[in-house]
Amino acid sequence: MRIVVGATGASGSMLALETLRQLRDAGAETHLVVSASAPVTIAHELGSHGLEQLHDMATAVHEATDIAAPIASGSFDTDGMIVAPCSMRTLSAIAHGFGDGLLTRAADVTLKERRRLVLLPREAPLHEIHLNSMLTLSRMGVVIAPPVPHFYAKPQTIEDAVREIAARALIWLGIDPGERMTRWDGVQSVSGD
């Protein structure tokens, strides 16, 4: 599989790193594009070598301003795209076809070619403009998945929660994450409750 991975300046750089790690482990070819503002957040959250870590996990890295990159064209066949984390600015730009850089152009291509697009938006609380942009994208078949912890998986660390969130994102891209994801098998009732 060939997946485009976008990372924006929203908080949640761990999501980008774990998503790339899991895609690599699943044997996917990944094409990474980092928004212009993302390196500041990545350095703050992952340290001074964070951007290098992301680059090392990706099969190919494309500059945010390189509108001539292969992922800017529908003729470059991909199986989908994920933006993790996704800022509200990027989500809004995608919702309204504002392809002002490679990341939003690649998402626009993903939409026009009717490929899978998964967005992990990072914002709270949400106002009406955020919600309307999400609704617009959802109506086009985009998976809008705020990175909410899956509490029934009983995560012990933030890394556990991030691993679960990334694994679910892989499923929405059509990729089996294997044992990384806790699968619900029901609740056994306990007598005396």
Automatic annotation (TrEMBL):
Gene3D superfamilies per record: Flavin prenyltransferase-like
Keyword flag S-adenosyl-L-methionine: no
Binding site for dimethylallyl phosphate: 152, 168
Record-linked PANTHER family: FLAVIN PRENYLTRANSFERASE (PTHR43374), FLAVIN PRENYLTRANSFERASE PAD1, MITOCHONDRIAL (PTHR43374:SF1)
Enzymatic class: transferase
SUPFAM superfamilies from the UniProt entry: Homo-oligomeric flavin-containing Cys decarboxylases, HFCD (SSF52507)
The name this protein goes by in its record: Flavin prenyltransferase UbiX
Chain segments annotated as coiled-coil in the UniProt record: none
Tree of life domain: Bacteria
Protein's UniProt keywords contain Transferase: yes
Domain Flavoprotein stretches: 1-163
InterPro entries: Flavin_trans-like, Flavoprotein, UbiX-like
Alphabetized GO MF terms: carboxy-lyase activity; flavin prenyltransferase activity
Gene responsible for this protein: ubiX
Keywords, comma-separated and alphabetical: Flavoprotein, FMN, Prenyltransferase, Transferase
Enzyme Commission no: 2.5.1.129
Family label: Belongs to the UbiX/PAD1 family.
Reactions performed catalytically: dimethylallyl phosphate + FMNH2 = prenylated FMNH2 + phosphate
Pfam family for this entry, one: Flavoprotein
Function: Flavin prenyltransferase that catalyzes the synthesis of the prenylated FMN cofactor (prenyl-FMN) for 4-hydroxy-3-polyprenylbenzoic acid decarboxylase UbiD. The prenyltransferase is metal-independent and links a dimethylallyl moiety from dimethylallyl monophosphate (DMAP) to the flavin N5 and C6 atoms of FMN.
Binding positions for FMN per the UniProt entry: 9-11, 35, 87-90, 122
